[in-house]
Design goal:
Its EC number is 3.2.2.21. InterPro entries: Alkylbase_DNA_Glycosylase/TA (IPR051912), DNA_glycosylase (IPR011257), HhH-GPD_domain (IPR003265). Keywords: DNA damage, DNA repair. It is a single chain. The protein has twelve helices and three strands; from the N terminus they run E-E-H-H-E-H-H-H-H-H-H-H-H-H-H. A three-stranded antiparallel β-sheet has the order 1-2-3, with no helix packed on it. Helix 8 crosses helix 9. It has two domains: about 90 residues, Orthogonal Bundle (Endonuclease Iii, domain 2); about 110 residues, Hypothetical protein, domain 2 (Endonuclease III, domain 1, Orthogonal Bundle), CATH 1.10.340. The protein is mainly alpha-helical. The protein is globular. The relative contact order is 0.14.
């Protein structure tokens, strides 16, 4: 764990304790991983912030560019004194819309806050729950689909074996690195990933890096 400071607010950053073992496993099992892993030094998955903030950011960023998402988030994050379910529920819709949020995203953020505030999600229990059980809980929240839930498993809970087959970047990266750019089906991707288990999250992260060297943070 490390601590960084952004806008004078300390942010704890957590990294997976399995990363080194995962890299050794992947380099041994997969020729592409053997080539990719050394290119990115000590960089790895990072978890920062709390569960509510991570999911709120994922909703804000849906269907817009990374740059636009950051801009909207920065404006939205200034509205409450602290980013918590209770403070978001007290915000005015007009203020949220003025920050750049669509009416639908406002609805999604309110629903997310309600799920956290009324205990409909079991945050403390997640560390002992299976990936699929957590996904089931998360997709019950408006605006959160399987892909968002999988990103949460990877970037917040640092789960090691998530394979987000709905992720366009993963499919494009597998096409680029394993099939010389030819189109790839989900079954093709699953077949390639068979060698990655039990570290599909780590392999996915390196596939993303092969297309976009700068890591995304949630």
């Amino acid at each position: 764990m490390a601590t960084t400071t952004k806008s004078s607010v300390p942010v704890q950053v957590f990294t997976p304790d399995y990363w080194e073992d995962a890299c050794k496993h992947l380099a041994k099992k997969d020729r592409v991983m053997r080539r990719l892993i050394p290119q990115f030094g000590d960089a790895c998955l990072e978890s920062r912030g709390d569960a509510f903030t991570t999911l709120a950011r994922s909703i804000v960023g849906q269907q817009i560019s990374v740059k636009a998402a950051q801009s909207v988030w920065d404006r939205f994050a200034k509205l409450p004194r602290r980013m918590t379910p209770a403070t978001v529920l007290k915000l005015k819709v007009d203020d949220m819309r003025a920050a750049g949020l669509s009416a639908r995203k406002v609805e999604y953020l309110v629903d997310l806050a309600l799920h956290f505030a009324n205990g409909a999600v079991h945050v403390e229990a997640w560390k002992n729950m299976d990936d699929e059980d957590i996904i089931t809980e998360l997709v019950a929240i408006r605006g959160i689909g399987r892909w968002t839930a999988e990103m949460f498993l990877m970037f917040h809970l640092l789960r090691p074996n998530v394979l987000p087959l709905d992720d366009a970047g993963l499919i494009a990266g597998i096409s680029h690195n394993y099939f010389s750019g030819e189109s790839v089906s989900r079954s093709d991707a699953r077949e390639v990933a068979a060698a990655w288990s039990p570290y599909c999250s780590v392999a996915t992260w390196y596939i993303w890096r092969s297309l976009e060297p700068v890591p995304v943070a949630y």
